[in-house]
Specification:
The chain has nine helices and six strands. By secondary structure, it is of the alpha/beta class. A six-stranded parallel beta sheet has the order 3-2-1-4-5-6.
């Protein structure tokens, strides 16, 4: 499947794509693991990235012979909003010129994230990205999260464009599955500090610098 020559839209995930936030999430996770007296490996912790944690967190604790629900875990964890409000955030290299180019060519853009709207709006405001997207779909705005197609489908419907010529940029297997389930051409982004499996994407990119869509 060739990359669309002139996309009907370009939709971006936020965490690990627009900004390298996922490394900070691991810091907050590690604080909680230590409260339970365990030290998961880097690989175990990274396996939770891109998930809601509802199934992956109990599965991780079972590996240590412990019965801990996602609710118990998050009750002890610093609120995720601190990542977007307090931690140092930077736009991924090359993203701003790419967004400006898409805007100049009148190609609609969207942000599709599993993260709650409050956190995403904090981050977009801090990074000066608020006006860069025509539509924003967050985790608390949909009934079904990635890998379900609903988040990307909602963005496409809001833009009033077809999926067949659209492009999504995501860095996680769940996000890639969600976008492909909507019929989008998917760029797997592997330019953040936490690299995930992008093998199911139509192609993988490691930087936005010099990218033309």
């Amino acid at each position: 499947m060739p990359r669309p020559a002139k996309p009907s839209c370009v939709l971006f995930d936020f965490d690990g794509v627009c900004a390298d936030t996922e490394k900070y999430g691991l810091q907050l996770d590690r604080e909680v693991y230590r409260q339970f007296g365990i030290e998961p490996t880097e690989a175990q912790m990274r396996s939770l990235v891109g998930t809601t944690g509802l199934e992956s967190i109990p599965a991780l604790f079972r590996e240590y012979g412990m019965d801990v629900s996602a609710q118990e875990f998050f009750a002890r964890r610093r609120d995720n909003v601190s990542i977007y409000r307090d931690f140092p955030l930077e736009v991924q290299p090359g993203l701003l010129p790419l967004l400006a180019d898409l805007r100049s060519r009148r190609i609609p853009t969207g942000l599709v994230s599993t993260t709650a709207a409050q956190s995403i709006l904090y981050a977009l405001n801090r990074l000066g990205l608020m006006a860069c997207f025509d539509v924003v779909v967050c985790g608390d705005m949909v009934r079904h999260h990635k890998p379900d197609p609903e988040p990307y489908r909602r963005a496409i419907e809001a833009l009033g464009v077809g999926a067949a010529e659209g492009i999504a940029v995501d860095d996680s297997p769940t996000g890639i599955s969600s976008a492909k389930g909507t019929g989008l051409y998917v760029l797997g982004y592997a330019g953040a500090s936490i690299m995930q499996d992008t093998s199911q994407a139509d192609e993988t990119i490691r930087t936005f610098e010099g990218l033309q869509l």
